[in-house]
Specification:
Elements: H1 7-40, H2 43-74, H3 78-111, H4 118-144, H5 147-155, H6 157-177, H7 182-214
Helix pairs in contact: 1-2, 1-3, 1-4, 2-3, 3-7, 4-5, 4-6, 4-7, 5-7, 6-7
Length: 236
């Protein structure tokens, strides 16, 4: 981060970046808790995950207020402006990650302990591990201003998409083999879609980190390999 003659300005920028890092840590924890609640059918953890999302919303609002204050008072340009714009955009992505974790927790409550397809649930766990590793890597890239690491995160989005497509087909097979599993497999399908979208938000953050550091856009279009035909499932 650049140094200025006005030390309070530097402090404001550091505080903004710190809030984004705090949001990142909380968003990671919410996703992890939601998936853990799914696998263990822990309804209490699911309820706590839903409640904790409110803190993520508060942080996003704090960042937005700081963003407006800095722009109004400091009139940033160049690298400073990119830092501030990136903070605002990343905060929005992290707020959405929290919403998606909350959606998974709601599915846990809807399943209400009646999860018999443990094998399918483990597929969701594997997918969430990859999405969380992507989220952690891109937040590290943001903190360290590492454009190459951010670009690597963007290029790995295909892996999350591929697992989602595979899991989608697996869950459909379970449903066709045993109609009694249709309800719980449908819930798992929504959970998997939420995790796939968390991977997309990690990729959005990667693109913003790259621009923040280099001042350049990643021009090559992001390749999506969602072959399910359900690219925009509405979340409950």
């Amino acid at each position: 981060m650049s140094e200025h003659t006005v030390s309070s300005y530097d402090e404001e920028l550091r505080e903004l970046a710190g809030r984004v890092a705090e949001m990142g840590g909380l968003a990671e924890a919410l996703v992890n808790d939601a998936v853990t609640a799914l696998l263990s059918q822990d309804l209490e953890k699911a309820h706590k995950t839903i409640l904790q999302d409110a803190r993520l919303d508060e942080l996003q609002q704090e960042i937005e207020a700081k963003f407006i204050r800095i722009v109004a008072l400091r009139q940033p340009m160049g690298q400073d402006l990119r830092e501030i714009m990136a903070a605002g955009r990343i905060a929005n992505d992290l707020e959405r990650v929290g919403d998606l974790a909350k959606n998974i927790a709601k599915r846990v409550i809807a399943i209400d302990g009646d999860l018999n397809s443990k094998k399918a649930a483990f597929g969701v766990e594997h997918m969430s591990e990859l999405a969380l590793s992507q989220l952690k890597a891109v937040l590290d890239a943001y903190t360290s201003h590492d454009a190459a690491a951010a670009q690597a995160v963007r290029e790995r989005d295909d892996e999350v998409d591929a697992i989602y497509t595979s899991l989608f087909r697996e869950l459909l097979t379970y449903m066709m083999e045993d109609p009694r599993k249709i309800t719980q497999c449908a819930h798992l399908l929504f959970c998997a879609k939420n995790i796939e979208r968390i991977g997309d938000h990690a990729t959005n953050i990667a693109e913003n980190v790259y621009f923040m550091v280099t001042g350049k856009q990643l021009l090559e279009a992001r390749r999506k390999i969602d072959e399910t035909g359900l690219a925009d499932i509405e979340n409950a």
